[in-house]
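User: Some background: our group keeps a shared notebook of sequences we're curious about, and every so often someone picks one and asks for a predicted structure to add to the entry. Today it's my turn. The entry only has the sequence so far, pasted here. Could you supply the structure so I can complete it?
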Amino acid sequence: MSHFRPHPWHGLEVGPDPPEVLNAYIEITPFDLMKYEVDKISGYLRVDRPQRSSAQHPTLYGFVPRTYCDERVRRLAPGAKRGDGDPLDICVLSERAISRNEIIVRCRVIGGLQMIDAGEADDKIVSVLENDHVWGAARNLSDVPSVFVERLQHYFLTYKLVPGRPAQARIAKVYGRSHALKVVRAAMADYDANFAQ
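Assistant: Of course. Here's the predicted structure to add to the notebook entry:
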C-alpha cells in the first residue's frame, strides 16, 4: 500500500466498467468562479485562471483518469488538426448539489459534445452520477431535458470569449451514448499508447 496520494490522472483507475461507467476526478463545481486544473506534474489542483465571463459551469466538471486526447480521439473529430493533449473532459449531472472539488465521482456515460477548440479535438463527455435518484436511470443524452445540453453548449462556446475577438471554439456536433463510448475507448487507447510502461 502506498503512503502517498496517487496522481489523479495517472494513479487512479479509469472506472469500474469502462467505457460505460467511469471515475471522474472533479476539478470544477457549479459554484466555482475560478478555472481550476490539475497540475500535470504534481497532481495538485491549481488555479488556471479566473473565469472571464459571468457564466458558471452548469455541472460538475473534470476528467477521466488514464485517458488522453491524441490521434485516436482526433480521428473521431473531423476538422480537428490534433487532440488537445489533455485527459478526456467529463461533465457529470447530479440532482444534489456537490460543492467540493478534488473528489472522485462514479458516473455513467450518456453522450457528449464534439468541441473543436483552436483546431484541437476537445470533446466533453456528458454523464450522470451513478445511482443518482433523479438522473441515475438515464442511459442516453435524449433521456435528459434538452435544456441541460443547451446550457452545456452555451457555456463551452462562451466561457473563453473575449469581446471584440473571434471565437476559437465551436461545437461540431452533439452525440449520444454510442459515439461517446467510442470517444472514451479512443482516449483510453491514446493514453496507453503515450503513457503505458
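Suggested note for the entry: Residues 53 and 158 are 8 Å apart (CA to CA). Residues 21-195 form a domain with the Inorganic Pyrophosphatase fold (CATH 3.90.80.10).
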